[in-house]
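Researcher: We plan to redesign the surface later, but first we want a full-length starting point. Tokens attached.
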């Protein structure tokens, strides 16, 4: 008898010695709904900040699609891979920079010196010139890093002629917002854990930008109506499918997304989400959506589309709740929000110069952008790659699907067409009202509450990092001070 008991007792003693000093539970499960950049970042930061929890804490990630990445996705045209969803990163997107290093990914700089024109439906109201090489002299004379990505340096001269000093005012406006945003990278020792989006934005000095329209902010910043109605409009339409009446913070982020030094990840940005999930020791459930989340007192029960039930002590929603149907028991309450649908249409073929009143396809600029006019059937058309004289791959953004008849008038040759309807980002209305990070006052969290501030890969990562810290401090009783 005693002989048998002894080993058991010893095991018990060993266990109690290994027990963490805090009240942290011995074993628990964190369930994450959504394997986009938000969900994968929550998993990453929980592991990064608390490696000691790994043996006792299981992380499950549920993804209703068959692949990881969410709104970051690639499309294959003529054997080449192009970004189909979230496509650009800013040089100050420090989480993305770190992910790239951590995951051994390669950054890719966008091609510079392409031509841009603004189309009003009948004519080009502004057009840059096509040039093949940068002129270093101009670089020194007129440095406008802000629009470097949109156009070549010579062309920033043309821009200056049209828009004048307003361009610099626009640049200052953007730099100030980007500077405030950088506070979210401060050391966790001095950076609070935020329980609400409002608190998080106020701390960085960004909240006020969500209370007014971009138009009002830019008028106050002294920008000319011409610049607002043309270039700024073109940029907010391309990045968020919306006009300058969107809220100011989303607008500022959108303008930052047209500046110099933009980059992406070779082979596709979605590799960030893939890599983070791979190295975060998670159980990944692909092709399995969550139908209901029921609070059963000390844990949640998640029922999936595959008919499975999962018990989770912590549950994280990392997908916009606006267009999916998850039943919460008891019900949760979040402000109503509409998502802006952006239709991305990829065409392999050749644009028809006649549509634009031109004589030759070669005269059509690499990026045709448009003004805010409900009659215009598309937002932008850009060349992704010139395969040869007869054939290029183009990406078209529009607010409605591009009908075949319309495509037939815009293109003289069309060999391949791929259409994607993205529920891409929120429709921004100032003043923004934010959903809670903590949906039920317990351990049910919502990463995408932050999307009403601005929706980008990086803002998702920033929100996810804060959610990971909330979970570690509220559930596991850990302050994060790496
Ligand atoms: C990026 O990684 C470095 C090195 O691990 C770290 O010191 C820095 O805080 C990280 N930056 C962010 C924004 O997390
Ligand atoms: C935001 O607006 C409020 C009210 O108008 C004002 O008191 C406050 O100083 C503003 N905050 C910032 C950071 O500009
Ligand atoms: C979830 O599944 C369990 C087991 O089948 C069931 O008892 C429970 O009622 C389901 N919950 C919901 C909200 O459907």
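Model: Full-length starting sequence:
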């Amino acid at each position: 008898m005693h002989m048998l008991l002894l080993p058991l007792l010893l095991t018990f003693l060993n266990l109690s010695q290994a027990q963490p000093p805090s009240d942290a539970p011995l074993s628990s499960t964190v369930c994450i709904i959504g394997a986009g950049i938000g969900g994968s970042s929550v998993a990453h930061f929980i592991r990064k900040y608390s490696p000691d929890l790994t043996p006792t804490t299981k992380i499950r990630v549920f993804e209703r699609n068959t692949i990881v990445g969410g709104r970051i996705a690639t499309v294959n045209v003529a054997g080449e891979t192009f970004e189909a969803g979230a496509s650009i990163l800013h040089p100050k997107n420090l989480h993305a920079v770190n992910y790239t290093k951590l995951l051994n990914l390669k950054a890719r700089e966008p091609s510079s010196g392409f031509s841009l024109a603004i189309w009003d439906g009948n004519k080009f109201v502004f057009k840059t010139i096509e040039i093949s090489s940068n002129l270093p002299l101009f670089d020194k004379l007129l440095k406008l890093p802000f629009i470097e990505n949109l156009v070549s340096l010579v062309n920033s001269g043309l821009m200056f002629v049209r828009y004048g000093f307003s361009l610099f005012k626009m640049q200052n406006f953007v730099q100030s917002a980007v500077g405030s945003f950088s506070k979210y990278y401060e050391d966790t020792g001095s950076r609070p854990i935020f329980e609400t989006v409002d608190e998080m934005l106020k701390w960085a000095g960004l909240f006020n930008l969500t209370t007014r329209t971009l138009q009002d902010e830019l008028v106050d910043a002294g920008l000319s109506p011409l610049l607002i109605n043309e270039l700024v409009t073109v940029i907010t339409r391309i990045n968020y499918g919306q006009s300058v009446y969107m809220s100011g913070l989303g607008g500022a982020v959108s303008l930052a997304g047209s500046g110099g030094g933009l980059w992406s990840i070779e082979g596709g940005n979605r590799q960030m989400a893939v890599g983070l999930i791979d190295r975060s020791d998670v159980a990944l459930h692909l092709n399995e959506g969550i139908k209901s989340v029921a609070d059963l007192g000390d844990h949640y029960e998640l029922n999936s589309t595959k008919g499975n039930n999962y018990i989770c002590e912590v549950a994280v929603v990392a997908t916009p709740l606006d267009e999916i149907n998850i039943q919460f028991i008891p019900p949760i309450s979040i402000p109503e929000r509409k998502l802006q649908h952006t239709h991305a249409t990829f065409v392999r073929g050749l644009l028809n110069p006649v549509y634009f009143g031109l004589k030759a396809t070669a005269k059509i600029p690499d990026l045709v952008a448009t003004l805010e006019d409900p009659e215009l059937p598309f937002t932008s058309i850009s060349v992704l790659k010139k395969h040869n004289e007869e054939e290029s791959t183009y990406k078209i953004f529009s607010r409605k699907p591009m009908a075949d008849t319309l495509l037939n008038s815009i293109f003289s040759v069309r060999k391949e067409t791929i259409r994607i309807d993205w529920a891409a980002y929120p429709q921004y209305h100032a003043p923004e009202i934010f959903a809670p990070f903590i949906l039920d006052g317990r351990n049910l969290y919502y990463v995408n509450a932050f999307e009403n501030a601005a929706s980008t890969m990086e803002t998702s990562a920033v929100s996810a990092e804060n959610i990971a810290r909330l979970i570690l401090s509220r559930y596991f009783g850990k302050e994060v001070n790496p």
